[in-house]
Amino acid sequence: MAKSTKELWMENVFDDFGGLILNYIKTIVGDAHQAEDVMQNVFIKLWKTEIETLSNVKAYVITAARNEALTYIRKRNKTHLRPIAKECQLFSREENTLRKMCIEEALLELPQEQREIVFLKIYAQLTFQKIADTLNIPLNTASSRYRYAMEKLSQILGEKNHE
C-alpha cells in the first residue's frame, strides 16, 4: 500500500530532526528513557496537526519538543540531575568517550534555561536570534544565558580536570 503524503512528510521530519529532537528533550528532562516517551508524544501531536506547509519546520519541531518536555517536567514536578562523576579527568585525545560523558554531565549541572540555550546553539546550530524566537525571550537574554553557561561549564570542567 502506498504511503500518504502525511506519512512521507512525517518520515522526513523524523529522519531530518529525530536525533536532534531526542537529544534536545534528553537535555531538558535529563533521562534517555523519559526523553523517548516525550519524543513519542511530540510526534503524535505533530501527526494530529496540519503543519506540512510550515516554512520553518525545524524551529516548529524544536518548539513543540521544548513545550512537551516542559509539560513533562511540570507533571513530574521535580528536576532530575545526575551528579558529576569524580573520574572526569580531561587529558588525552584517546579519552573522547569519557570527555563527552563529562561534558554531558556538566551540562546537567546548569540551570535548565542555560542548558537549553547551549543545546540549541551548539547541537542544533541555531543563531541567537532563532534561539530567542524559539524560546520567546529577548535576544540579549539568549546570548547572556549562553555566556553564563559557558563560564559555568568552564568552571565545572576545570574543577574536574584538577581533581
Automatic annotation (TrEMBL):
A cellular component term, taken from the record's GO annotations: DNA-directed RNA polymerase complex
GO molecular function ontology, one term from the record: sigma factor activity
Pfam families in alphabetical order: Sigma70_r2 (PF04542), Sigma70_r4_2 (PF08281)
RNA polymerase sigma-70 region domain span: 14-78
Family membership noted in the UniProt record: Belongs to the sigma-70 factor family. ECF subfamily.
GO BP term, example: DNA-templated transcription initiation
Ranges for domain RNA polymerase sigma factor 70 region 4 type: 101-153
Name assigned to this protein: DNA-directed RNA polymerase sigma-70 factor
Keyword Cytoplasm: no
Highest taxon in the source lineage: Bacteria
Lineage: Bacteria, Pseudomonadati, Planctomycetota, Candidatus Uabimicrobiia, Candidatus Uabimicrobiales
Gene3D superfamilies hit by this protein: 1.10.1740.10, Winged helix-like DNA-binding domain superfamily/Winged helix DNA-binding domain (1.10.10.10)
InterPro entries the record matches: RNA_pol_sigma-70-like (IPR039425), RNA_pol_sigma-70_dom (IPR014284), RNA_pol_sigma70_r2 (IPR007627), RNA_pol_sigma70_r4_t2 (IPR013249), RNA_pol_sigma_r2 (IPR013325), RNA_pol_sigma_r3/r4-like (IPR013324), WH-like_DNA-bd_sf (IPR036388)
Annotated keywords: DNA-binding, DNA-directed RNA polymerase, Sigma factor, Transcription, Transcription regulation
Transmembrane intervals: none
